[in-house]
Design goal:
With 204 residues, this protein is of the alpha+beta class. The protein has five helices and eight strands. It has a four-stranded mixed beta sheet with strand order 3-8-7-6, with helices on both faces. It is globular, with a radius of gyration of 17 Å.
Length: 204
């Protein structure tokens, strides 16, 4: 979400004509294989989207974005190392129950804000393409916002939580299988370490 918002701003201000936004993760390098609270959840993956500035875009493209960070929740999801800190890559650490609660609350709020900024209702959205954290979070957000689960693209069972790669991977799956079609209104969201979270509304 952060990379997508950055690219959109460059394009909107004429500082670039085309942008490649890539999300890629190799969690297998930073897993603690003795920690069942994390190692069974995360996966490796990569995905990308191409954005292009067009004068006559017909309403297609990024409509609104909403981004937030709150470092006070750093200890809930982080990597306990780094070359400058411990001279190692470190391991992923997560307080699962707390992350679940914050994820449902903050993701829901971000999605509503992205829609509000665009002047549309959640009910107007054709497809929801969420960060594939886990199915419980996807279901929790859908319940909180009253979203029909059939409109939620879920691919977490295919490749686990690939973090930054999960939204473009899910978008690709739903586009290739014909669910998402040209002109559809799509709402994407994600939450990550730090904690960070955000949402983006676009018409494909």
């Amino acid at each position: 979400m952060f990379a997508l918002a950055t690219a959109d701003n460059f394009l909107a201000r004429g500082q670039a004509k085309t942008a490649l936004v890539i999300g890629a993760e190799t969690f297998s390098r930073i897993m603690d294989w003795e920690d069942r609270g994390t190692c069974v959840l995360f996966g490796d993956g990569a995905g990308a989207v191409v954005l292009e500035a067009q004068e006559d875009h017909g309403g297609r493209g990024v409509i609104s974005t909403f981004l937030r960070t709150d470092g006070r929740m750093h200890d809930l999801l982080y990597v306990d190392g780094g070359p400058s800190r411990t001279q190692s890559v470190g391991k992923v650490r997560m307080v699962g129950n707390a992350v679940f609660r914050h994820a449902v609350e903050h993701i829901s709020g971000a999605m509503l804000e992205a829609c509000s900024r665009a002047g549309v209702s959640i009910d107007d959205v054709d497809w929801f393409v969420p960060h594939q954290a886990n199915q419980r979070i996807l279901d929790g957000v859908a319940r909180k916002l009253g979203i029909d689960v059939d409109k939620v693209v879920s691919t977490v069972a295919l490749h686990g939580n690939t973090s930054a790669a999960s939204v473009p991977l899910a978008l690709d799956v739903a586009t290739r299988d014909g669910r998402i079609k040209k002109g559809d209104l799509v709402l994407m969201e994600a939450l990550g370490g730090g904690l960070t979270w955000g949402a983006a509304l676009l018409r494909v």
